[in-house]
Automatic annotation (TrEMBL):
It comes from Stenotrophomonas daejeonensis. Keywords: Hydrolase, Protein phosphatase. The active site is at 7 (nucleophile), 13 (nucleophile), 124 (proton donor). InterPro entries: LMW_PTPase, Ptyr_pPase, Ptyr_pPase_sf, Tyr_phospatase_low_mol_wt. It comes from the Bacteria. This is protein-tyrosine-phosphatase. Residues 1-150 form the Phosphotyrosine protein phosphatase I domain. It holds the Pfam family LMWPc. One of its GO terms (molecular function) is protein tyrosine phosphatase activity.
Length: 162
């Protein structure tokens, strides 16, 4: 199973989401079985480390994302990844523009796909403060935990091999 987390800049939400997902997977029976990456629908921050506020937020939760580097989503990602997990509806629209017609459905809104009720989008904390980063982290980490549960069920039903 291969998962790609998407936001606009790939310096705030998606690196935090990638970090949360990596950490939750590593602590689960799925450790080593799921490939995780992140990308942005824009290439504005290509090659850059996550925003210092995102690095600090992840670190407060025991997750090190300082080594990640931003990259833009590419057409070929739709061939490689099983799911393209989008932070918000604009990301989903922008991602689907790049999708080959037969891979359109691989791009999904992460929160509802993971089974999170009540909120469908992770708000962009870029113009916000520490509390906004914490709010985005909480949603991303909830999605990461729900994703691990969803994939664990898939493994038990034999769809993912050992
Ligand atoms: P992200 O946040 O999509 O969560 O990485 C943003 C980062 C940068 C910009 C916007 C959102 N920007 O306008 O440069």
């Amino acid at each position: 199973m291969k998962l790609l987390v998407i936001c606009l800049g790939n310096i705030c939400r998606s690196p935090m989401g990638e970090g949360a997902l990596r950490a939750r997977l590593a602590a689960s029976p799925l450790a080593g079985r799921v490939e995780v990456d992140s990308a942005g629908t824009s290439g504005w921050h290509r090659g850059q480390a996550p925003d210092p506020r995102a690095i600090a937020c992840a670190a407060r939760h025991g997750v090190d994302i300082a080594g990640l580097r931003a990259r833009p989503l590419q057409h070929k990602d739709f061939r490689h990844f099983d799911y393209i997990l989008c932070a918000d509806a604009r990301n989903l629209d922008d991602a689907r523009v790049l999708a080959p017609p037969d891979a359109h459905d691989r791009a999904v809104l992460w929160l509802p796909w993971a089974g999170i009720a009540g909120t469908s989008e992770v708000p962009d904390p870029w113009y916000g403060d520490e509390a906004d980063f914490e709010h985005s982290w909480a949603l991303l980490d909830a999605a990461a935990q729900a994703t691990v549960r969803r994939l664990a069920d898939t493994v038990e039903s034999g769809i993912i091999g050992p």
